From TrEMBL:
The chain crosses the membrane at residues 70-97, 118-138, 158-180, 192-212, 218-237, 315-338, 379-396. This is Protein translocase subunit SecY. Keywords: Cell membrane, Membrane, Protein transport, Translocation, Transmembrane, Transmembrane helix, Transport. Pfam families: SecY (PF00344).
Length: 437
């Protein structure tokens, strides 16, 4: 492994790509600790240990995770990459519904560029809405659950100051998008994924230290061993795939013979990635939003029901709902992102077939059957991984800084594996051995 790193840095163009990527990530992390204008960051840091705002297992906690803790510091990059993720998910869903977007998706690089442009516009619009919500929560004290007075970290609450903070946070989201595209174009790995990876691992050391201070030595060691076992299991599941063999028949085009090759269609067990967890977390934020709209009047039976079962993230009803939502969204997302009929039609067009399966509709039915069989364990795996931090909060007495959360582990392992594979492909092009031997 260390030898592969040395060989990577000895290769001039690969070294330049790696250094450029590290440079952009460093600037990105710097912007995550620079406070927005009008924010007293010193007051926030002095009382940050008392803040329990990230306890809720909703979209609010997810935004704070994807911002690397910058949200609770009201930094320039406080929104992190979350607006772009949300915009990408919405555009993917609309592609199935709106024929115009579906046509653009089939037009190749030009159509994809147009869809990317729509995603940017939607990202900025969502950033404005999200920044306005965060500033409003900070102004009323809800951002820190009332544990820090708003006058402490926002001494000037004039309209001009608040609008400036919203503008700076929105501009920060635009810069983050630009950083991601720069890394994808000139660096190594997928830019947006690496930015998410950076924000997630940024809070990992502090979470480990918090766990060390809260627990005794033996329990801390046990949690660390369990975390390593969990990471190993996630690596195994993320790498697991079913390879469908595909044979291409020989055909004459002019005077040349084409085809006759064999390949395969890789179908991952976790074909949906982390998107179902984000969907489910977003949907389970609605009860907390309803409580905010209806007020915290304990005499209201609806509010009392929501507070008892859907606030805190440790009630069995909440966990069961979260689990089944993840399973359902996993099947839904796989269904809209992988079209067996389209894949079968493309294979038939180019003379490809699965051995033992007739081309056309039988191939589509076979792919759909295999995909359903794979998605079932994949969705159950996602649900169990996502429930781990809630189970830890409810049984082990861990605090909100529990480091081995399901979402964090999925992001770290998935992005880490993809980046290592890209570096390995660069090394193998130069006849070097890669990281994965």
């Amino acid at each position: 492994m260390l030898g592969a790193f040395v060989r990577a840095f000895r290769t001039p163009d690969l070294r330049n790509k790696l250094l450029f990527t590290l440079f952009i990530l460093t600037i990105f992390r710097l912007g995550s600790v620079i406070p927005a204008p009008g924010v007293n960051s010193a007051a926030i840091r002095d009382q940050m240990e008392q803040v329990q705002a990230a306890d809720d297992a909703g979209i609010y906690a997810l935004v704070n995770l994807f911002s690397g803790g910058a949200l609770l510091q009201l930094a320039v990059f406080a929104l992190g990459i979350m607006p772009y993720i949300t915009a990408s998910i919405i555009i993917n869903l609309l592609t199935v519904v709106i024929p115009r977007l579906e046509t653009l998706k089939k037009e190749g690089q030009a159509g994809q560029g147009k869809i990317t442009q729509y995603t940017r516009y939607l990202t900025l619009a969502l950033a404005v809405l999200q920044a306005t919500s965060i500033v409003a929560m900070a102004r009323t004290g809800q951002l820190f659950q009332g544990q820090i007075r708003p006058e402490t970290y926002l001494p000037d609450q004039s309209i001009l100051t608040l609008v400036t903070i919203v503008f700076v946070m929105t501009a920060g989201t635009g810069i983050i998008m630009w950083f991601g595209e720069l890394i994808t174009e000139r660096g190594v790995g997928n830019g947006m994924s690496l930015l998410i990876f950076t924000q997630v691992i940024a809070v990992f050391p502090s979470s480990i230290m918090g766990l060390w201070e809260e627990q005794d030595t033996w329990l801390f060691a046990l949690i660390c061993v369990a975390g390593l076992v969990l990471i190993t299991g996630v690596v195994f599941m993320e790498q697991a795939q079913r390879r469908i063999p595909v044979q291409y028949a020989k055909r004459m085009v002019g005077r040349r013979m084409y085809g006759g090759s064999s390949t395969y269609i890789p179908l991952k067990v976790n074909q949906a990635g982390i998107i179902p967890v984000i969907f489910a977390s977003s949907l389970l934020y609605l009860p907390q939003l309803a409580i905010g709209l209806l007020g915290e009047d304990s005499s209201n039976p609806v509010v009392r029901f929501l507070q008892e079962y859907f606030v805190g993230g440790t009630h069995p009803v909440y966990m069961a709902t979260f689990f089944f939502l993840i399973v359902g969204f996993a099947f839904f997302y796989v269904a809209i992102t992988f079209n067996p009929a389209e894949v079968a039609e493309n294979m038939k067009k180019y003379g490809g077939f699965i051995p033992g399966i007739r081309p056309g509709r039988p191939t589509a039915e076979y792919l759909d059957f295999v995909l359903t069989r794979l998605t079932t364990p994949g969705s159950l795996y996602l649900g169990l991984i996502a429930l781990l931090p809630m189970i830890a909060l409810g049984t082990a007495g861990a605090q909100q800084g529990f480091p081995f959360g399901g979402t964090s582990i999925l992001i770290m392992v998935g992005v880490g594996l993809d980046t290592v594979k890209q570096i390995e492909s660069h090394l193998q092009q130069r006849n070097y051995e890669g990281f994965l031997r």
